[in-house]
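Action item from last week, closing it out:
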Amino acid sequence: MISWLLLVLGLTMLTVGATWLTNGSVAVAKRLQISEYVIGMMIVAVGTSLPELTVSAASAIAGNADVALGNVVGSNIFNVFAILGICAVLSPIPFSRNNIRYDAPIALLVSVIFTALIFNGTLSRLEGALLLALYVGIMAFSFIKNREKSDDAATNSNFAWWRSLGMIALGICGLIYGANIALESSIEIARSLGVSEAVIAITILAGGTSLPELAASLIAALKGHSALALGNVLGSCIANILLILGLCSTVVPLSMTDLTMTDLLVMVLSAAAVLLSAILVGRKRISRLEGAVYIIAYVAYIVYLVRH
């Protein structure tokens, strides 16, 4: 009973935290005259990726590189196929010209670069430093390319600076603590129901660190801020690889043992799916039908993992 109550508490904190983070981020975007996509990519994405950073860093330092690598790869697959899929089913996600020309291709390129670097089974300190440098460059590039030109953008926000920044900070805290409570209580409930450890690890743990991204993106989509949801997902995928694995491998070189090329290829495929939706399939948007296909793809991947 306590586990169920904690689950409700955790989900409530996630919802409230995501709402605050979304409202505060939109207000900051208007005041700084930058697009919601940039805010989603640079602020919301980093904030919601903190659980992945914590888990991956602790695992790397403890010498469990596969957990660090698997956490990032699994989270990126979940971010695209599950989160964007659900958001698109609720409300089709449009792409801007910059999303099509730069952002979606960059997300795919980052996945390909990581796969190429880890292909020999090891991510060295030098490669980690290169990933970090690439992250800084991409953030600067995205900021410049996605700036809004509207002179009156700053007048559209009703929130004072202190209130906007406070909502962002409290929203991130709510997401992190809410995700932690929901994750731990879900594991206890699953064990009490007799669910195997393997299924728990593949489903609950894999998606658990992505709960902040899921909550923030869902709230953003429901509030009509699809660009914020898209920026959060693509930004999280880029931050997971370049920032998180870059930091981890700079401290401790990471070696891949249990992670397979199939996992890496599915991650690359997920990034490629977004680009295909942008330029070919969805006519500059992720439609509801495509969102359903994304979800089916994620379920199929989980079934494959369970059976293998």
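Closing note: The longest strand covers residues 93-94.
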